[in-house]
Amino acid sequence: MTEVYIILLCLLFLPIEAYYHSRWPISFLCLHNCHCAWCFVYKTSPLSPSVCSIYLPRASRLSRRIIVCSASESIHIQLIHTHYLLKAIPVIMVGYKIFAVALALCTLSLASPITSRQAPISLTGAQLQAIAPHSNTCAGADPAQCQTADHAAGYIAQSFQTYGITSPREMAALISTIAFESGDFKYNKPINPTPGKGTRNMQSAAFNVKYAQSLPQIASQLATAPAGPDAALNLLIANPDIDFASAAWFLTTQCPSARAELQSGTMAGYTTYITGCLGTAVTDDRHAYALRAYQAMGVPMQ
């Protein structure tokens, strides 16, 4: 945020022209780690190396000299006091405004996006095993579908990072849904197959098509894939990161209105998510998963 304030101050002062004391008004735009600052130095004023301090490598050759802009907007070299050294990027009085605006826009563009400054999300296999008691092994399960808690933890944590989910209560609700729907992470297709339905969220074929189309790398493959109800699903479950991210995608893009309810951490909020977003009922088994998930995430349901 500091960088933004500095950039705004620089833009505020762009129209200012400094004409003081003598025929050698000097105006510099100095750069330091993508910050900008104004340095107005005058011929009649003592110069200090601390006035501005970052510069093109060639500027180091300008010992006892400084490039300045005169009132006539031409570049001159003015000898300065022998024991001072100032290295700076010369900018003529017309060009420096355009340069500063470009610098500001570049700096602001590099300051995004949302997920880039979010702290890494920590989720352990032990937490998932507390929620999904049978997730410690894939013995007897289809190895093409099953993931143990230790493996699932990384995929689920990444999905929260990708879709900007930081509330432990939202995380608990989503983990409980994934664990319940996938049989403790053992399935990404229904036991009783339904065309196109699946992923760890066990969402319908229509939502899987939407999900696939939201991912550029999958959408391009889907456009050329053989037609069929399972086309989108097969592409989605081929990548565990994408497979496990379906719940986070669904909440943030298809039912964002439920997020505030989930963040409240109440049974009423959780019920709204299950009935209003997933379109199903809060059964005893589903409720038990939720209670364990909220407890494991350190936010017992209120």
Number of helices: 13
Number of domains: 2
**Mean pLDDT figure:** 74
Uncertain segments of ≥5 residues (pLDDT<50)?
Answer: 1-96, 99-116
Per DSSP E runs of 2 or more residues, the count of β-strands stands at 4
CATH topology of the largest domain: Lysozyme
Beta-strand content bin: 5-15%
Q: In sequence order, what are the helices and strands, one letter per element?
A: HEEEEHHHHHHHHHHHH
Cα distance spanning the termini: 36 Å
Which key terms come to mind for this protein?
two-stranded antiparallel ribbon; 4 strands; disordered N terminus; mainly alpha; single chain; 302 residues
Give a brief outline of the structure.
The protein has helices at residues 2-13, 95-110, 125-131, 149-162, 168-181, 205-213, 216-224, 231-237, 240-244, 246-254, 259-263, 267-277, 284-296, and strands at residues 26-32, 35-41, 65-69, 75-79. By secondary structure, it is mostly helical.
Would you mind describing this structure in some detail?
The protein has 302 residues and is mostly helical. It has two domains: 2-110, no CATH class; 121-296, Lysozyme. 43% of the residues lie in helices and 8% in strands. It is built from 13 helices and four strands. It has a two-stranded antiparallel sheet. Strands 3-4 form a two-stranded antiparallel sheet. A hairpin with a 5-residue loop joins β3 (65-69) and β4 (75-79). α1 (2-13) packs antiparallel against α2 (95-110) and α3 (125-131) packs antiparallel against α13. The longest helix has 16 residues, at 95-110.
